[in-house]
Amino acid sequence: MGQLDGKTAVVTGGSSGIGLAAARRLAAEGAHVFVTGRREDELRDAVDVIGTATAVAGDIADPADLDRLYDAVRARGQGLDALFANAGAAGFATLAETTAEHVDRILDVNVRGTVLTVQKALPLLNEGASVIVNSSVRADDGVEGFGTYAASKAALRSYARTWANELRGRGVRVNAISPGTIDTPALSGLVPAEELDAVRAEFAAKVPLGRMGTAEEVAAAVLFLASEQSTFVLGANLYVDGGENQV
Prior knowledge:
Rossmann fold
């Protein structure tokens, strides 16, 4: 018996990294997982490794794409028990380097897209459902060059608190997770290949556990919040950071 047998879950940004690891973990515990992402080839490959899953390609910043995702969930006829609002965009830019386009890109996906993701799920959420919003330790620590990204993640943490209050009357729990420095494919998209090893070593040195985290370790936290193991957890922000912002 899995912890999520008979449940339905949605994971946005589920084609790689934390999203893929979370989708695999939820499916392994018995959930039928709907995964979405912008890259169709990666999404098809993800379904092969997730197991019990349905792929719906799309961009969370596009309301029509989200409508297609939730139409697919609705067609299954069992509502929605767990939503991991994970999809996001990242990019480095100091204040001096920040452009209007940079701000629009990050906030459009991370804030507007996440708001729409959760809002459009409302009619489908079953009693006892769990909504998990992916924030970040970067919302707290002021790392140089991550200002817009950090601000977007701080906004999501704030939204999670408000949504927890707004939805508790329906028996829906809303919580956030804040991953620390996690070694995912996204890192290679932000850092030149020749600098990757040095950057990984620099990041690991700042973590009390002495290493970067894994996507699977974040997925374990997502499972906890999605399952009945966390029925008395509401409006929380679960740090998965190896102590980076804690000690």
